[in-house]
Amino acid sequence: MPNQFMFSRIADPTKSPVRFIDIDAELCAAFDAQPHPTLYYCGWYDWLGERAALGYSYNKMREEFRAQAEGRLTPDQLAKILAIIDWFEAHYVPDAWAMRGKP
C-alpha cells in the first residue's frame, strides 16, 4: 500500500498542493542556495518527504533526528536538518494518505 503525500501553503485557504520543484526553489532561496536541475536541496524530499508520507508531525521529525544524531550526524548537519524542518513548518502543511489497489 503506497503512502502518498503533498504540501500546501499555510496561507492558502484552498490548501491546493504545491509542486515539489516549486517548494525546492523557495527553500533554496531561503537558504541562499542554487536549485539543482535534478536534486532537491539537501535531499529534503527523501528524508522529510518520507516522514511526511508516514504522517509524522514536524515535532516528531525533529525528535527523531535529535535522537538519532549522536554518532551519525555532525552538529552542523543536525542544525541544517532542523532548520529545514523549521522552514517547512513555517510555510507548509503536510498531508498524507495511503492508497490500495488501482486509483
Characterization of this structure:
The protein has four helices and two strands, in the order E-H-H-H-H-E. By secondary structure, the chain is α+β, with helices and mostly antiparallel strands. The chain has one domain (3-98). Helix 3 packs antiparallel against helix 4. The N and C termini lie close together (12 Å). The model has no long low-confidence stretch (mean pLDDT 92).
Give structural attributes.
single chain, 103 residues, alpha+beta, 4 helices, 49% helix, 14% strand
How many β-strand stretches? 2
Written as H for each helix and E for each strand, in order along the chain, the element string is EHHHHE
Low-confidence stretches: none
pLDDT averaged residue by residue: 92
- Tally of helical runs: 4
